[in-house]
Design brief:
The structure is a homodimer of 425-residue chains. By secondary structure, chain A is α/β, with parallel strands linked by helices. Chain A folds into 3 domains: 133 residues, Rossmann fold (3-Layer(aba) Sandwich), CATH 3.40.50; 153 residues, Dihydrodipicolinate Reductase, domain 2 (2-Layer Sandwich), CATH 3.30.360.10; 79 residues, 2-Layer Sandwich (Alpha-Beta Plaits). The first copy, chain A, has 15 helices and 16 strands. In chain A, the strands form 2 sheets. In chain A, strands 6, 7, 8, 9, 10, 11, 12, 13, 14, 15 and 16 form an 11-stranded mixed β-sheet that branches. In chain A, strands 2-1-3-4-5 form a 5-stranded parallel β-sheet, sandwiched between helices. In chain A, α1 crosses α13, α5 packs parallel to α6 and α14 packs across α15. The longest helix of chain A has 17 residues. At the A-B interface, α2, α7, β11 and α13 of A face α2, α7, β11 and α13 of B.
Chain lengths: 425, 425
């Protein structure tokens, strides 16, 4: 039976989970995969973590070389997080010809070109399924399941924290602040929630997924990003009668004009399979030219889902003869022939408070029309004291047209635009 | 660049689709996979099909050996359908050391043990992603994405025809007969729809998926099977107020008692991700011990989705050094240590017409109670002429208890049981 010794660098949530999955399933993998997977070395500065897992003293490395260069170690799991130290450790392991498995999305989206170059040079493996959407095998699917397809669109709910917050706001009508505090209390949001709620986490993941889907490096800086901090319970409630749910979407499209990548809150029709993805679940919806629409759904984070993805990568590397690398020229910057669309078009939802007087609709639609914006759907309801609430959905239009319309409406004395939200199509 | 010559046996819907996908994407695969995939040989008795695809004469083989033993052919695609001839052709290709890719579910679920033995003996590859759920890479996911998990449950909507019929009955209230005729007219159902509506097709697919998920051969004969022919529009309508949708489900469970495999119509709660899978879409919902719940959703059949899966297998085989075989001892019969649960428990929906008189509920619940059946939910509505309609959902119970209750109720002069449908949990 093939024996694979594993070194785990970092025993936080994911690294600890990997230790548990490997030790608890050793016999199962011997039986089903004909592989003997054993943890041979761990590197972790915190003694309490080592003790909590009951790891024998002789497995504890005192410095990275001891773990990575251990001749009994064939696979190195990087779970220390952060970028610079992780990068050095991963490079050291790759240069020693080891299989490296990481859940570090920031590392992969910023340095996969450098790491993969080192991997190829030393016949080493670089695997990162766990970096995106936890236990859902979306990277394996893009690389080895849908690789016969030209992919035109990838659309996902790929951040569990924001989906938990938005689901809570949708189902219980609570405010953003309240939902955020609750997510913090339950451990779904960090004390500093910026990376999640401002869309950075989703941007890193989209960078990785879009690079694989569109066969060219899509750096995070090319991704338009907007967080959910400005979303109110009223916005979400306004979508309901129009048939929309609000989600933080990561969207990648490839058209003849180029690649369009963006992360932002968006209304999506209730009938769309992504609309039903609630709580801390994640999903990725992919459109390929042969397969049509495919969706993968599951837990996007958490100790065991993420650890399971790490272990799946270790097994994959051990049960296939050759290492698999990116299906594109993995460089720091995109291919020269790749164009990015930054002036993208989109449908929009708008809410404004207007004077409740005859002819007001005609004035407003005239302003929108002069900006080149046409309307799909519009509803006006009376508010108090001579004011009305106007909600509308536009046809697909340019962002600059919407900005110009908002400025023009803001300059009037009869309309105040309160909310502008993109609508996914 | 690695060159892979492909032979296609059979140019029906799937085989023709494979020809199109390969020829239209040749440059794309050269660029993204560093593979030159070219169709070198086709075997097809119908001239019209060859001509419709514009296949040059020199590529047309006159007998199977000419296609399969062609030294320029590394991968053989079997799309002739049926079992016996397909089996012979596939064996011939495997014995010649070729990679065989097939979409033939009946062949795989009945002969994978023999074919895989031949593949191993000749260092050949046997791939069959296209045999289950069309373009959705569910087999790749079980083998190479969720293989770190012990899977406890696999539940799927894996037949597009029946899902189209049931969705139509649900959304438009039409009868089974009407929905079936419509499905025939649209090409979603065959002239003889038995294989689909009686659940044979789903049984073959479940046999393949459950074998992979539970690591032991699950032969079709071990699968309990019931079709959708007895379902009425009234059954479906009755589920609505109780919060259920009706689907033809393929269910595989592994518990301490053994493996339980079944295909039958079942009510499923509207909140369940499978409940929203409509039309001719398919989905497979898998529960693993690390990942939790995962769902894969997409087109389960059709020319291009299925052809795309075939081509993905060709690419997979060509881009990984070693062939991948079943993660279990692939034998004709299950392992000796495997137990199959045939006396499974389930919740049930029942509808009956009862005499609308005082004390009737007490009589009926007494009969159910004596059979060991307890009730979760019950609704009684007046019908015409002294009759009432009673619908109820039971707690989990044995099928024999339900049968006994139905017999006892049938022997009374105050109740007629009209419908008994399982409820998925």
């Amino acid at each position: 039976m093939k024996k694979i010794g594993v070194a785990i660098l970092g025993l936080g949530v994911v690294g600890g989970g990997v230790y548990k999955v490997l030790t608890e399933h050793r016999e199962f993998y011997q039986k089903t995969q004909e592989l003997d997977l054993s943890v041979e070395s761990v590197l972790e500065p915190r003694r309490d973590r080592i003790e909590a897992l009951g790891i024998p003293e002789e497995k504890v490395a005192h410095h990275v070389a001891e773990a990575v260069l251990n001749p009994d170690v064939q696979a190195v799991v990087e779970c220390i997080g952060g970028v610079e130290l992780a990068r050095q450790y991963v490079l050291a392991a790759l240069k020693a010809g080891k299989t490296v498995v990481t859940s570090n999305k920031e590392l992969i989206c910023k340095y996969s070109h450098e790491l993969e170059r080192a991997a190829k040079a030393h016949n080493a493996g670089l695997y990162y399924e766990a970096s995106c959407v936890g236990g859902v095998p979306v990277i394996r699917t893009l690389l080895d399941g849908l690789q016969s397809n030209e992919i035109s669109c990838l659309m996902g709910i790929i951040n569990g924290t924001t989906n938990y917050i938005l689901t809570n706001m949708t189902e219980r009508g609570v405010s953003y602040e309240e939902a955020l505090e609750e997510a913090k209390a339950l451990g779904y949001a960090e004390a500093d929630p910026t990376a999640d709620v401002e869309g950075f986490d989703a941007t890193y993941k989209l960078s990785i997924l879009a690079s694989l889907a569109f066969h060219t490096k899509v750096p995070p800086v090319k991704i338009f990003r907007e967080g959910i901090g400005g979303i109110t319970a009223e916005d979400i409630a306004d979508g309901e009668p129009l048939g929309y749910r609000l989600k933080l979407l990561a969207i990648g499209k490839r058209t003849h004009a180029g690649i369009e990548v963006r992360v932002h809150p968006a209304f999506i029709r209730k009938e769309h399979p992504l609309a039903g993805v609630g709580g801390n679940f994640n999903a990725v919806f992919v459109t390929g030219d042969s397969v049509g629409d495919v969706m993968l759904y599951g837990k996007g984070a958490g100790e065991l889902p993420t650890a399971g993805a790490v272990v799946s990568d270790i097994i994959f590397a051990a049960t296939h003869g050759e290492h698999r690398y990116s299906p594109y020229k993995n460089t720091a910057a995109p291919d020269k022939e790749t164009t990015f669309v930054d002036d993208f078009t989109c449908a929009y939802f708008m809410r404004m408070t207007v004077n409740d007087e005859p002819g007001i609709l005609s004035k407003i639609t005239a302003i929108l029309g002069r900006c080149g914006i046409s309307i799909v759907e519009l509803a006006q309801r009376e508010k108090e004291k001579g004011k009305a609430k106007l909600t509308l959905i536009t046809h697909e239009t340019h962002e600059r047209a919407v900005k110009s319309a908002v400025a023009k409406l803001g300059a009037t004395d009869y309309a105040v635009v309160e909310s502008v939200i993109r609508v996914a199509q």
